[in-house]
Amino acid sequence: MYWLTISRYLRKRILAANQRTDQIDAAWRICTALLERQFSKFYQALDEYQWSNLAIPLVVDIRETIQKRLLALIRRTYTSIHKTDAAQYFGMSESDVVPALMGEGWEYNGETGILVAPKSTPAQRERGDLNQFSRLADVLLQLENY
Predict the structure, then answer these.
(1) 34: closest CA among 61, 68, 72, 7?
(2) Contact 67/60 with Cβ under 8 angstroms?
(3) What is d(CA 115, CA 112) in angstroms, rounded to the nearest whole number?
(4) Any idea what the Cα angle at residue 87 is, between residues 86 and 93, rounded to 5°?
(5) Three-state SS for 54?
(6) Maximal C-alpha separation, the chain
(7) At CB < 8 A and 24+ separation, what contacts does 50-59 make?
(8) Are residues 40 and 91 in contact, defined by beta-carbon separation less than 8 angstroms?
(9) I need a labelling partner for 61 at 20 to 30 A (CA). Which of 34, 84, 140, 142 fits?
(10) What predicted TM-score, i.e. pTM, was given to this entire model?
Protein backbone atom coordinates (compact mmCIF):
# COMPACT_ATOMS: atom_id res chain seq x y z
CA MET A 1 0.00 0.00 0.00
CA TYR A 2 2.90 2.24 -0.87
CA TRP A 3 0.66 4.37 -3.08
CA LEU A 4 -1.54 5.26 -0.10
CA THR A 5 1.41 6.94 1.58
CA ILE A 6 2.18 8.83 -1.60
CA SER A 7 -1.45 9.92 -1.83
CA ARG A 8 -1.17 11.61 1.58
CA TYR A 9 1.65 13.82 0.37
CA LEU A 10 -0.08 14.50 -2.93
CA ARG A 11 -3.20 15.56 -1.03
CA LYS A 12 -1.16 18.03 1.03
CA ARG A 13 0.34 19.51 -2.13
CA ILE A 14 -3.08 19.80 -3.78
CA LEU A 15 -4.53 21.58 -0.78
CA ALA A 16 -1.53 23.88 -0.52
CA ALA A 17 -1.86 24.81 -4.20
CA ASN A 18 -5.63 25.32 -3.84
CA GLN A 19 -6.29 22.83 -6.69
CA ARG A 20 -9.13 21.01 -4.94
CA THR A 21 -12.02 19.57 -7.01
CA ASP A 22 -15.00 17.33 -6.26
CA GLN A 23 -13.34 14.41 -8.04
CA ILE A 24 -10.13 14.85 -6.04
CA ASP A 25 -12.19 14.91 -2.83
CA ALA A 26 -13.98 11.71 -3.90
CA ALA A 27 -10.63 10.05 -4.64
CA TRP A 28 -9.39 11.12 -1.21
CA ARG A 29 -12.43 9.49 0.43
CA ILE A 30 -11.41 6.26 -1.30
CA CYS A 31 -7.85 6.58 0.00
CA THR A 32 -8.92 7.30 3.57
CA ALA A 33 -11.32 4.36 3.55
CA LEU A 34 -8.45 2.08 2.47
CA LEU A 35 -6.08 3.60 5.01
CA GLU A 36 -8.65 2.92 7.74
CA ARG A 37 -9.45 -0.52 6.26
CA GLN A 38 -13.12 0.43 6.10
CA PHE A 39 -14.03 -1.57 3.02
CA SER A 40 -17.74 -0.78 3.07
CA LYS A 41 -16.82 2.94 3.04
CA PHE A 42 -14.38 2.25 0.21
CA TYR A 43 -17.07 0.72 -2.00
CA GLN A 44 -19.56 3.40 -1.02
CA ALA A 45 -17.07 6.12 -2.01
CA LEU A 46 -16.47 4.38 -5.34
CA ASP A 47 -20.17 4.12 -6.11
CA GLU A 48 -21.57 7.42 -4.89
CA TYR A 49 -19.52 9.79 -7.07
CA GLN A 50 -20.22 10.36 -10.79
CA TRP A 51 -16.69 9.80 -12.15
CA SER A 52 -15.43 11.46 -15.32
CA ASN A 53 -14.97 9.34 -18.45
CA LEU A 54 -11.23 9.57 -17.96
CA ALA A 55 -11.43 8.27 -14.38
CA ILE A 56 -13.94 5.42 -14.90
CA PRO A 57 -11.38 2.83 -16.15
CA LEU A 58 -9.11 3.70 -13.22
CA VAL A 59 -11.95 3.34 -10.71
CA VAL A 60 -12.97 -0.03 -12.20
CA ASP A 61 -9.35 -1.19 -12.05
CA ILE A 62 -9.01 -0.07 -8.41
CA ARG A 63 -12.17 -1.99 -7.45
CA GLU A 64 -11.02 -5.17 -9.20
CA THR A 65 -7.50 -4.95 -7.79
CA ILE A 66 -8.72 -4.47 -4.21
CA GLN A 67 -11.21 -7.32 -4.59
CA LYS A 68 -8.50 -9.66 -5.94
CA ARG A 69 -6.11 -8.74 -3.13
CA LEU A 70 -8.81 -9.19 -0.50
CA LEU A 71 -9.76 -12.56 -1.99
CA ALA A 72 -6.15 -13.73 -1.75
CA LEU A 73 -5.80 -12.33 1.78
CA ILE A 74 -9.03 -13.86 3.05
CA ARG A 75 -8.20 -17.19 1.45
CA ARG A 76 -4.86 -17.22 3.31
CA THR A 77 -6.16 -16.00 6.68
CA TYR A 78 -9.60 -17.57 7.07
CA THR A 79 -10.74 -21.14 6.69
CA SER A 80 -14.34 -19.90 6.70
CA ILE A 81 -16.19 -16.61 6.72
CA HIS A 82 -19.84 -15.61 7.14
CA LYS A 83 -21.51 -14.35 3.98
CA THR A 84 -22.32 -11.01 5.69
CA ASP A 85 -18.64 -10.36 6.39
CA ALA A 86 -17.64 -11.49 2.90
CA ALA A 87 -20.21 -9.14 1.37
CA GLN A 88 -18.64 -6.20 3.23
CA TYR A 89 -15.12 -7.16 2.15
CA PHE A 90 -16.10 -7.42 -1.52
CA GLY A 91 -18.67 -4.62 -1.77
CA MET A 92 -21.43 -6.96 -2.88
CA SER A 93 -24.81 -7.98 -1.59
CA GLU A 94 -25.02 -11.27 0.30
CA SER A 95 -26.91 -12.83 -2.60
CA ASP A 96 -24.13 -11.81 -5.04
CA VAL A 97 -21.11 -12.69 -2.91
CA VAL A 98 -22.08 -16.35 -2.46
CA PRO A 99 -22.05 -17.26 -6.20
CA ALA A 100 -18.98 -15.06 -6.79
CA LEU A 101 -16.95 -16.90 -4.14
CA MET A 102 -18.33 -20.28 -5.14
CA GLY A 103 -16.98 -19.50 -8.61
CA GLU A 104 -13.56 -19.11 -6.96
CA GLY A 105 -13.79 -22.59 -5.41
CA TRP A 106 -15.37 -21.71 -2.05
CA GLU A 107 -18.08 -23.95 -0.59
CA TYR A 108 -21.27 -22.57 0.93
CA ASN A 109 -23.34 -23.94 3.82
CA GLY A 110 -26.85 -22.56 3.37
CA GLU A 111 -27.94 -23.45 6.91
CA THR A 112 -25.22 -21.46 8.67
CA GLY A 113 -24.45 -18.87 5.99
CA ILE A 114 -20.76 -19.81 6.16
CA LEU A 115 -18.44 -19.79 3.17
CA VAL A 116 -15.55 -22.28 3.44
CA ALA A 117 -12.28 -21.49 1.70
CA PRO A 118 -10.90 -24.00 -0.76
CA LYS A 119 -8.12 -26.19 0.49
CA SER A 120 -4.82 -24.81 -0.62
CA THR A 121 -1.95 -27.03 -1.51
CA PRO A 122 1.41 -25.85 -0.27
CA ALA A 123 3.69 -24.78 -3.07
CA GLN A 124 6.65 -27.01 -3.66
CA ARG A 125 9.88 -25.18 -3.07
CA GLU A 126 12.69 -25.68 -5.44
CA ARG A 127 15.86 -26.90 -3.90
CA GLY A 128 18.55 -24.29 -4.04
CA ASP A 129 21.84 -25.12 -5.63
CA LEU A 130 25.23 -24.50 -4.08
CA ASN A 131 25.73 -21.34 -6.14
CA GLN A 132 22.77 -19.72 -4.39
CA PHE A 133 24.16 -20.70 -1.01
CA SER A 134 27.57 -19.36 -1.98
CA ARG A 135 26.08 -16.03 -3.12
CA LEU A 136 24.12 -15.74 0.11
CA ALA A 137 27.25 -16.39 2.15
CA ASP A 138 29.14 -13.74 0.14
CA VAL A 139 26.40 -11.17 0.74
CA LEU A 140 26.35 -11.91 4.47
CA LEU A 141 30.11 -11.57 4.69
CA GLN A 142 29.98 -8.25 2.86
CA LEU A 143 27.28 -7.01 5.20
CA GLU A 144 29.30 -8.00 8.25
CA ASN A 145 32.33 -6.16 6.95
CA TYR A 146 30.40 -3.06 5.91
Answers:
(1) 7
(2) no
(3) 9
(4) 155
(5) coil
(6) 63
(7) 51/23, 51/26, 52/23, 55/23
(8) yes
(9) 84
(10) 0.69
